[in-house]
Write the structure tokens for this entry.
Amino acid sequence: MSRLYGDPIEVWTRHGAPSQFVWRDRLYVVHGVLDHWVVAREWWKTSENDPGERRFWRVEARAGDQGGTYELRYDTASDGWLMIRAWD
Amino acid sequence: MFAHLHLASAYSLRYGTAFPQALVRRAAELGMDILALTDRDGLYGAIKHAQACLAAGVSPVIGADLALSADEDGGGKGERRITVLARSGGWAALCRLVTAAHYSGERGEPRVTREMVAAHAEGLVVMLGPASDVGHAAAARRDDLAAGLLARWRAAVPDLVVELVDQYGYREANTAARMLGLAGAAGVPAVLSNAVRHLAPADYQVGDVLDAARQLVPLHPRHLPHSTSHAYLKSPEEMAHVAARICGGDEEQAARLLATTRQVAERCVLDPLDLLVLENDEPELHLPEIGRNPVPLLRDRCADGLYRRGLDRSRDARERLAAELDVIERKRLSGYFIAVAGITDMIRGMGVRCAIRGSGAGSLVNYLIGIGEVNPLDHDLLMERFLSEGRVGLPDIDVDVESARRLDCYRAIYERYGEARVACVSMMETYRARSAIRDVGGAMGLPPHEIDVIAKAFPHVRAKQIRAALSDLPELRESGLNDRALATVFRLAEKLDGLPRHIALHPCGVLVGNAGLRDRTPVERSLLDFSMSQFDKDDVEKAGMLKLDVLGVRMQSSMAYTLTEIERVDGVSVRLDEVSHDDTETYDLIGTGRTIGCFQIESPGQRELVAKMIPRTMHDLIIDISLFRPGPVNSDMVTPYLESRHGWRPVRYPHPDLRGVLAETNGVVIFHEQILQVVHAMTGCGLSMAEKIRRTLDTPEGRSRVRVWWELNVRPEYDRETVERSWEVLDAFGAFGFCKAHAAAFALPTYQSAWLKRHHTAAFFAGVLTHEPGMYPQRVILDEARQCGVSVLPLDINRSGRQWLVERVGPRADPPAADPQSPARIRVHPAGLEPAGRRAPAPAWVGEMGRGYGLRVPFSAVKGVSEAEVDRIVAGQPYTSLADFWDRARPSRPIAERIVQVGGLDALHRLRPGGPRWRPGELTRRDLIAQVGVLERGMRSAAQLPLGFTEHIVPGELPEMTESEMVEAELSILGMDVSRHVISFHDDLLDAIGVVRSAELMSLRNGAEVLVAGVKVATQTPAVRSGQRVIFTTLDDSTGPVDLTFFESVQGHCAATVFGSWLLVARGVVRRTGPRAVSLRALDCWNLLDVDRVWHEKGIAGARALLGAAPVSAGAVGGRRIEYANGFRLSPYADIGPAPGVQDPPRRLWHASGGSSGPAPTRRSA
């Protein structure tokens, strides 16, 4: 079962893809990218400037003995990452 | 190098956002050497793509993205689409498949089946992408189903590929990988594409708006699941990333995918010159089949023509003919002329009026073989303007036919040549301000009636001018549209600027070809079910196909109707084409400016011009028509011409050598033909070259090139000053002149219509009212008819017809004047009872022209009446009573009521509404309306009522309709005031405030400041010399037209009122513009109903105060003038169409106080 979170997290990337992230004070190392997709924002609700897009990554990662599948989201407009959900 | 194989341009209607030219340019910048165009549902952009590729040195691939018909794969929602590409040499197969798609299923919803694709597969590559049935099955993870579908495609199509797309959407890469696996297992090659629909990433927002507009859904993620910024023209590097993503890092597989894509692209490269036939040195034109060698055939027919036209002894004619035939034969166009002559003969044989128009009138061949009736030698028309040695491009012959029978002509052409050889030309309607607001408003979920109001508030401007117009134009600034809530609508609407919206039948172009026509152009069904090429008129020419323009002209229908009415009523058969062209009385009519209803010369500006110019010959009319164009008006040719014509100024020529060329127009350059002759006379370059030079003058760059050419080629004997002065003429003239051949072709129907107005006045107006050829609403035509002495007769169920009918109502000739009490003269105008001082100073014969005739209001004028009802009513005439009418004509109840309301049964039941005294016990229109209800209820109850019962109508308690109620009913049902002019109800007020009538204006001095009033009947904002937006408005005040000009200086306080009112009061300064011409420069204006209300509430002092108050301006008109290099300036809001604003009578026409139903018809002391 997956759980939804929505916590802000810190992410390090390599070649544009996440390689490590810190979530709830633990450092996770990414072992593989399972999926990656991009969703455009509902730009018509916002003002004239570019609303940006949301880039989703579904990755396998481990932090010490704990591991699982995690869905991370990067928002180009706010330049911030969120932990969306986790299967662990 | 990567090649995009799947690409939608803006010619994928309401889907793509970039034009082929921009896409090709970007592809070339990215280093791509091949680019495909695969528009949705058609090849609308194919020729433009080929052309852009040729210019950029890119090899074109052309295909189409087609929808599959609802199929047997049994699952999932949404459309299934495949992409087909023409292999090298497969253009014909692609055209035929696209045509077949449009001919199966519903019109406008082209569909293909696997069988249809298989039938054309010989020349095609078929790509199955994620939108295909296979792709949908793969996305649904139903691999066995996907494999089965793929196997069926493979059995049907030899050259099949699987197309992988990944635009970074949810699970898209996954599906692509799955399809790659399927393709591998089935042994089908896989290619990579990006299903491109945008030029740049940010364009996806426009795409979203188009998706919403196309599917009629609001902008919402639920309806637009595919909003993505990745569907743009990606670079080869970016596509390599996509390949790597799909192949999951398997580099070898990714490389193979890209290599296969390249191979397919190379297999499909077309030679652009195969499509752009005209670019070849020896173009292989697509000509109609004549059956035998057309060259001697045309020669024979021309020789016959020389005798028939009486030109066999003319050396000029023989030499001219030889020169023309030489060019025609060298261009191998003989067959085209034979075919066109065959068509015009056939049209005339059908009894349809047919006239040549445009540059084709300049060809003697056209005259000799009977295509046109204008002899070019009579008017010094040049063939080179139509067809010349140096001219790249095809001649096209334009003919005008009766508008009401244009489609009959089309049908006859289709019948003669066969459906497969004929197609109409199409045209792309693009987004402009109004249409963009409509579609975006819909996508944003605004209520339809609000969208309608907002869209109609805008002038006909480009979509990207919407927000500029909102701040520039006073009437919009005041409108409340500048609201924040609408800001998003306007912002999005601007983004749609210029994108193709839908395809429509070109108003006149017809392709006449041979059996191979559909190998050259895809064809679809138009709204009227004519087959229509997907190419527009430019594409058609570039593709080497010849067309004929058959334009429906309402004036031709109007004149045809007039001729039948003359014959029916007077028993005279008029042969209009044989009428002499020097009838003094006709020119007298034109010279007085009484030209409302006449072809080409009825606008306020033209009425002013003809009254100043006073044409006396056909040649004068040709000049008049050419002068009234933006070019001559803007380069100020009109004043010098008129001054020289009337001898107020000596005629001047840039050089004596040009006297011969310019003498006919008093030294002023007016015609294209003169430019050709000036260039030829001063350089000796020949007329064909001169025509090329003239065309080059179209653009600013062209003008600077011609400038250099001119310096180099002018003969040495001309001095500096002459060269300079003649260059100024060429430069000023630029592209704005008028083709004399065109004017000569126009002048004929202009003269004919004026001749009919002068000599068969009532029948002329019957034609104009029936076919509405002009710019004025019917009420203006009716009023003009009245002033010409024609009576207007009310609707009568026993006398009215389908269309306007002429009736004899008295002796034809001069007085005794008709008895004012006779029912025939139903409108007794108060002004007519005034002293003679109020009469029009127009010559007395104007009012006598139509004496003795009446015009009967037709059934078709009744609002909401159906054609079937009209047919039944007319077939059942005459009727003996209302009940008889109800039984046999079987009108619907509302129609029957409306007919009673406007007096259709007055004569039958001897009603006299509007009279001063009604006594209880007299039958009224109201009683008849009640009786209609009785009849309808009787019909609904099964029992048959006894005849006597329904025949008997009991007079009721209610009084008869008043005059004002009658006029109100007429305006709302017929759209015009028949019994009395609506302005006459305001006579008391207008007299009290001292309004001057149209008929009196002529007697006022220049510069007098006056008040005028009337019904607004025309509003225009044409291009004028100053570059201002000038509003020209015509009011009808029952004694004639009042022409008002609103300059920008007064629009701040006037624009909203001018556009927003139907009845206007205006203050203006009299401007005498000619012996019989007068117009007013407006200073201020008011809605007459507002003045009327103040008058009723506060009395005459209040009304005077309102009219005397200083205007409050809503700010000036903004916007930058569009400036041309030769000094010609244009307002960005100059508009060719009618201006926006109120055009119909409002529901309330006058101030109603305390239960009264309108102003009393009796005079009150003010």
User: Anything to note?
Assistant: The mean pLDDT of chain B is 87. Residues 1088-1108 of chain B form the longest helix (21 residues).
